[in-house]
User: Which sequence fits this backbone?
């Protein structure tokens, strides 16, 4: 029986979230926490979809049946299957698609983009569609539009190509970091709402334009400086820049109690730097430090009810595992 399995990394924003909305740069990194997609040939004439993280399993007699009956919260998956079926005239009636992710959903780790990239790539491999990585990323971007409305394109790009990117006014450039960087990703136990956080800053900017612009400019400067320090591998400088970025995000009111509790503990325990990642008001915190410090911090956070994982840069991007 034919079987294909792919994986795609998640991401975190290291510097520049929110300021990037106002045309300042941001730096994002692919991370070693991943999503996977498996496509397996089946004997029955059915199209099965198993969503492990939601404990959900669906069985359709064909694509039309799926179009009519798949819950609308999975419209991005429907779009992907319909789009590929239409363009390549595929027979989707005897496969089982299983999707799983080790990324916390709605927490700034790019789980939806990572799943999208893994799915498109698995379809590409199973049906031998010969799609280039660029095309896989483009289809995932269309899927992201269904989930997020107006995404920047950071997530599908980084989940497809891996490594690190510097993003400014719609343009990406790869940053190849020659050394290892270890971060602790900690979950605040609350999903975040990107739109709500963006609206909060928009409101602040309307109320107090000069001061808000000054803060966003400062984040832009930090991101530019961070690029140099990341290439140099100066961990202590990178950490200081993360802390300054976090302070500015706090002033912009997108931090919260759990984020502040985690970042404060991280610095107290000897980390180089700690900040929220992504939209804020929940989601995840990233902490840079020596591995021993991160291990110690992770155990401490566990006693306070916060889950965390040590992550590296993912350098491969989307990958065919089987
Ligand atoms: O938390 P996320 O992955 O949705 O990231 C949001 C980052 C913002 O800068 C706040 C918005 C954006 O589109 O870049």
Assistant:
């Amino acid at each position: 029986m034919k079987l294909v399995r792919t994986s795609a990394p998640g991401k975190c924003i290291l510097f520049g979230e929110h300021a990037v909305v106002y045309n300042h740069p941001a730096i994002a990194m692919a991370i070693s926490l991943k999503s996977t997609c498996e496509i397996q040939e089946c004997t029955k004439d059915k199209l099965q979809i198993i969503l492990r993280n939601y404990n959900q399993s669906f069985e359709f007699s064909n694509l039309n049946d799926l179009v009519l009956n798949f819950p609308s919260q999975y419209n991005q998956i429907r779009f992907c299957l319909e789009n590929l079926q239409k363009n390549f005239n595929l027979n989707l009636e005897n496969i089982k698609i299983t999707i799983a992710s080790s990324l916390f959903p709605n927490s700034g780790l790019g789980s939806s983009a990572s799943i999208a990239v893994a799915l498109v790539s698995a379809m590409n491999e199973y049906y031998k569609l010969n799609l280039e990585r660029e095309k896989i990323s483009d289809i995932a971007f269309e899927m992201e539009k269904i989930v997020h409305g107006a995404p920047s394109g950071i997530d599908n790009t980084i989940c497809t190509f891996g490594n690190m990117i510097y993003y400014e006014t719609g343009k990406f450039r790869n940053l190849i970091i020659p050394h290892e960087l270890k971060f602790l990703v900690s979950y605040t136990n609350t999903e975040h709402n990107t739109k709500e956080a963006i609206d909060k800053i928009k409101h602040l900017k309307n109320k107090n334009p000069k001061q808000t612009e000054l803060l966003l400019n400062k984040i832009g400067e930090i991101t530019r400086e961070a690029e140099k320090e990341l290439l140099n591998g100066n961990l202590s400088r990178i950490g200081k820049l993360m802390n300054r970025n976090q302070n500015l995000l706090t002033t912009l009111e997108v931090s919260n109690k759990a984020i502040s509790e985690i970042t404060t503990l991280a610095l107290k325990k000897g980390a180089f730097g700690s900040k929220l990642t992504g939209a804020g008001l929940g989601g995840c915190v990233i902490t840079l430090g020596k591995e021993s410090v991160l291990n110690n911090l992770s155990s401490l956070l566990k006693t306070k009810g916060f889950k965390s994982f040590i992550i590296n840069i993912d350098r491969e991007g989307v990958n065919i595992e089987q």
